[in-house]
Write a structure and sequence with these properties.
Layout lengths: L14 H28 L6 H26 L6 H20 L8 H10 L5 H26 L4 H79 L1 H30 L3 H14 L3 E6 L1 H6 L2 H21 L4 E9 L2 E8 L23 H11 L3 E7 L2 E8 L2
Parallel strand pairs: 1-2
Antiparallel strand pairs: 2-3, 3-5, 4-5
GO molecular function: kinase activity
Keywords: Kinase, Membrane, Transferase, Transmembrane, Transmembrane helix, Two-component regulatory system
InterPro entries: HATPase_C_sf, Sensor_HK_TwoCompSys, Sig_transdc_His_kin_sub3_dim/P
């Protein structure tokens, strides 16, 4: 059973932090249970000092080996043969010594924890099959040892190993399953973005083909006809070439119009797209837009506000761990005020003098460039942080 993939850079999704938390949860469970339970036995002066030291060393080695193996598991790497052997041998020693001394409450901890770690590298069905086998084998070992040594509390020798397998196995497999689901969801989110880009490219290619295909076909036919008429009827050949020139000019104008329309930003479309993208990324979005005021704005300022929405959304996804965001467009005198507010902001350097916002929030160019463009049309753009909130405010005149 392996994770969907390792994540070196989570791109603002928080997946790398979740991965670390999962590792600490899994490794911490092994370390705490073995450390406290076996450690208490190791410190018992009633037991032989040499055997206590051996058991303590074996337990510590088991904890370290399990931690290393869990790290490789979370990074989607194959287990190291050396660490596998180390974990198994250390767990065997940590179990054999207490079992030989008749301590039926401690001996099963190290093998149960180690088995629970090792089965995570197996497919789901095999992992549960191995845990089921351990649920039978370990109590059987405890029972046979208790009967051989004359232990009166046979029940304790049986249920304690079973309890350890049940405590370690399902809990650790459940935590790993949570990580796998999160990694796969992040993969799906990234794939959805790539598919959206691919769909847009296909749409643009189809539009370009529709515009260029007819014109180029006619141009080719008329050019061929002009070449045939060049010697026999120069006047008709010249007329055909003038039509070719006109067709080429029409194709060029329509292509430019297509590219400009493709690049043009509309405020309504950007707000709708931002809400959709943020919701897909798990951010709760509230959009409060005065549609009448948005429609009454001149085309230039309205397009600039659309660019602000796009840039603020990009920054939110790249530079924050937001769970909530708000996009608000309301009247502001003769113009309009756009506010994009989100939580989960990360600490940033001091502002650049534009109203208290971190210049690094957009890699130093996006918002600053838009601020200059808004200044040029009598508007204003500012950004500010307050604890974990990041607020972008843009104003334009109507």
């Amino acid at each position: 059973m392996s994770t969907a993939r390792a994540v070196a850079d989570d791109g603002g999704s928080g997946l790398a932090s979740f991965r670390r938390n999962v590792w600490w949860g899994l490794a911490g469970t092994v370390a705490c249970v073995l450390g406290f339970a076996v450690g208490d036995w190791v410190l018992d002066p009633a037991e032989p000092a040499g055997l206590r030291a051996l058991t303590g060393l074996a337990t510590a080695t088991t904890i370290v080996a399990c931690g290393v193996l869990l790290g490789r598991l979370i990074r989607d790497e194959a287990p190291s043969a050396g660490w596998l052997v180390t974990a198994c041998c250390a767990a065997a020693v940590a179990a054999t010594v207490p079992l030989a001394l008749g301590d039926f409450g401690v001996w099963s901890l190290a093998p149960a924890a180690t088995i629970s770690v090792l089965v995570m590298f197996l497919p789901v069905r095999r992992a549960w099959a191995v845990l089921g086998t351990a649920l039978v084998v370990l109590p059987a070992v405890g029972l046979s040892t208790a009967l051989a040594t004359g232990e009166p509390d046979v029940g304790h020798a049986v249920w304690m190993p079973a309890l350890m397998v049940l405590a370690f196995g399902p809990a650790m497999l459940g935590m790993l399953r949570g990580w796998q689901v999160a990694a796969r969801l992040d993969d799906a989110r990234r794939l959805a973005g790539q598919l959206a880009v691919a769909d847009e490219r296909l749409r643009f290619a189809a539009d370009l083909h529709d515009i260029q295909g007819h014109h180029l076909q006619v141009i080719a036919l008329k050019s061929e006809l002009a070449a045939r008429l060049a010697e026999a009827d120069p006047a008709r050949a010249a007329e055909q070439m003038r039509e070719v020139q006109q067709l080429a000019g029409d194709a060029l104008r329509e292509t430019r119009a297509l590219v400009q329309g493709y690049r043009r930003t509309t405020l309504d479309a950007e707000i709708a797209n931002a809400s959709k993208v943020l919701a897909a990324a798990g951010v709760e979005v509230r959009a409060d837009v005065d549609a009448d005021r948005a429609a009454s704005l001149p085309e230039g300022p309205r397009a600039l506000l659309g660019l602000v929405v796009r840039e603020a959304t990009t920054n939110l996804l790249r530079h924050s761990r937001a769970t909530r965001a708000a996009i608000v467009l309301l009247p502001d005198g003769a113009g309009a005020r756009l506010t994009i507010d989100n939580d989960g902001a990360r600490p940033a350097p001091p502002d650049d003098g534009r109203g208290g916002g971190p210049a690094a929030a957009d890699d130093g160019t996006g918002l600053a460039s838009l601020a200059e463009r808004l200044d040029a049309v009598g508007g204003r753009l500012s950004w500010d942080t307050d604890d974990d909130r990041f607020v972008v405010t843009a104003t334009v005149t109507g």
